[in-house]
Write a structure and sequence with these properties.
The chain has about 325 residues and is α/β, with parallel strands linked by helices. The protein contains twelve helices and ten strands. About 45% of the residues are buried. Its EC number is 5.1.3.2.
Length: about 325
């Protein structure tokens, strides 16, 4: 039986990957950062024979032993912040070094198949591409471009490091899955940055919509792509955008408002002049300005053709997130 090693196993995407793997009969060893996360996963999959390894992306300890006996590395772990850090290296170093640490351990364990979770953020900001031209997997974000934030740079540099590694290690077949913003239903009440954005759109924390668009996808499609890639020969040596569609923030807010008229979604876009003033004092607002006047659209057609499915519409994925956020809020209020 094929054994898959999943890093960052307590993450939003990774939990769906675990469910998909277990349902398809794979043996799974999951990396976690603490026993608390182990209890969390065992609670989600009480009948599964999950193995665990406690690892840190920033430390060498344990990696070599953890991957022994595994056939596939599925590397999902990477820092995903809610805002821009003071120092971009706070994100870049763990992302790049953690990827290489996992890849080296896979090589030393004799693993021949690696599936890496990258991001559309590693695709959509190639500096010499016309700003309003949609991107596809042939494009690469330019990490040194002034419009590129720390997260975008970290995902780009980490993915490039992985491709450079396998270029020197031809025994390993690499596939990268590059999701846009990931919506959809979380598997428990602990959800991360992607769904925090949905909550902000629902509750009035975003009074005016940023004048930018966003490429998005359903988490269930992302998980399906990761697991299907293990056996699908045509995915080897390829990168795939997990991208259902692209909408601006005002449209996302309208999707939510149509679903629940009582939500405090933004009713208009923030004027650029106001953002420029606010950007003098806020790194997060300054990062938004880097997305004004360009599209972050990425085509998902290659993935649909290769994997043989159609992406869940962004609106459906967004509403599934909103339902979870609303349920979580009611549970907290009644506790």
């Amino acid at each position: 039986m094929t054994k898959v090693f999943v890093t960052g196993a307590s993450g939003f995407i990774a939990k769906h990957i675990l469910r998909e793997l277990l349902e398809k009969g794979y043996d799974v060893r999951a990396s976690i950062r603490s026993d608390k996360r182990k209890d969390e996963l065992q609670g989600l999959f009480p009948d599964a024979k999950l193995e665990f390894a406690t690892l840190d992306l920033t430390k060498d300890e344990g990696w070599q032993d953890a991957l022994q006996g595994c056939d596939v590395l599925m590397h999902t772990a990477s820092p995903f912040p809610a805002g821009e850090p003071k120092d971009p290296e706070e994100l870049i170093r763990p992302a790049v070094d953690g990827t290489l640490r996992a890849m080296r351990a896979a090589r030393d364990a004799g693993i021949k198949r690696v599936i890496l979770t990258s991001s559309c953020a590693a695709i959509y900001k190639q500096s010499d591409k016309p700003k309003m031209t949609p991107s596809d997997e042939t494009y690469w974000t330019s990490p040194d471009d002034p419009s590129v934030g720390a997260y975008e740079a970290s995902k780009t540099l980490a993915e490039k490091a992985a491709w450079e590694f396998v270029a020197e290690t031809p025994d390993i077949a690499l596939t990268t899955i590059n999701p846009g913003a990931v919506f959809g239903p979380p598997m428990d009440s602990r959800f991360g940055t992607s769904l925090e954005l949905v909550e902000q759109l629902m509750t009035g924390k975003v009074p005016m919509a940023p004048p930018m668009d966003m490429v998005a996808v359903d988490v269930r499609d992302v998980a399906r792509m990761h697991v299907s890639a293990i056996e699908l020969e045509t995915t080897k040596g390829e990168r795939f955008a997990a991208a259902s569609g692209t909408h601006n923030f005002l449209q996302l807010g309208n999707f939510l408002k149509d679903w629940d008229a009582g939500l405090k979604t933004p009713g208009r876009e923030a004027p650029v002049w106001l953002l420029r003033i606010m950007g003098l004092f806020s790194k997060d607002v300054k990062a938004v300005l880097g997305n004004v006047g360009r599209t972050l659209a990425v085509s998902g057609s290659k993935a649909e053709k290769t994997f043989g499915f159609q992406f869940v519409p962004v609106k459906d994925a967004l509403i599934a997130s909103a339902e979870a956020v609303k349920t979580h809020k009611l549970e907290k209020e009644s506790a």
